[in-house]
Each structure stands twice: as structure tokens, then as C-alpha cells.
Amino acid sequence: MRGMLSRLLPACLLLSLGLMLAGCQSRTYELGEITASVEAIDPDALPGDRAVITLRFINDNIVPVSFIESKHKVQINGVNLAEIDNPEPVGLAPLSTTTRAYPVVLLNPALVRQLVAQGQTEVSYKLDSVMLRQRNEVRERKKGETSGRTILGPAPKE
Question: Residue 67, class by beta-carbon neighbours within 10 Å (0-12 exposed, 13-18 middle, 19+ buried)?
């Protein structure tokens, strides 16, 4: 019986050590949810057929995330309103949000003027986004679509 235990104990110790070392290996983290939404559309912020659209970026991951560029298409009430081509990086801390304001040329300024003249302060929107992330030498595209209601006017102060 003692002989069997003396052979079994080193085998158990080696197995335990192997399992501990296997648990210490680095793992790849699957990128979870990152979303963009329209915080506000301010047609009075710029002259002419221009406006400022404020987007909110949300990182639901437990790791920081950054994008090297992003592209967004904004619709209000089912009509194309603007396209945002953002060549600037956006960084997000874990489980955080950030906002960015983008000057845009309105694709349908008459619709915006009509909504403002009617006293509308909120509109329905749809946002299609493509965010480009680079990890080491690999570029990943993160596509998303959000919809909801947004402010037609200046974005709230943070």
C-alpha cells in the first residue's frame, strides 16, 4: 500500500503543477459589444447646410478598446441625413462611454429645416457604423446598427 502511495503522490503533484501552468497561459479575449448611438443633431451649430452630430461610443468590454477610424451613416425619420468619415482614433476605457462631436454636411437640409420650423425637439434615428480596429498586424471591422430617438438641438453638457 505504501509503495503505491509513494508512486501516486508524485504523479498527482506533476498533474497539479501542469494544470496550474496551463491556467497561466495567455488567452485571446473575444471582443464583445461596442456600440455607437446618436446623442444629438444640432442644425444650428454651423452655418448653411451643415450641422454637428454628436455620437456616443459605448464599450461593454472589461478591456480597453480603440479604433483607428470609423464611418457612420445617419438617417432620421427614414431619410438619409449625413455621413461621418472619422479618420481619428477613438479610445474607450473598460466598461465606459465617450462622446465625439462631428461637423457634417446635411444630405437633406430641407427636412431638418422643416422639423425645426415645426418645433420638433426629438427625432427617430438609425445609425449604421463600421469601426476599424487594429490588433498587432490584423485589422478587424466591427459593424453595428442602432436606432432610437435623439435630440434635435445641442447635445447635453457632460
Answer: buried
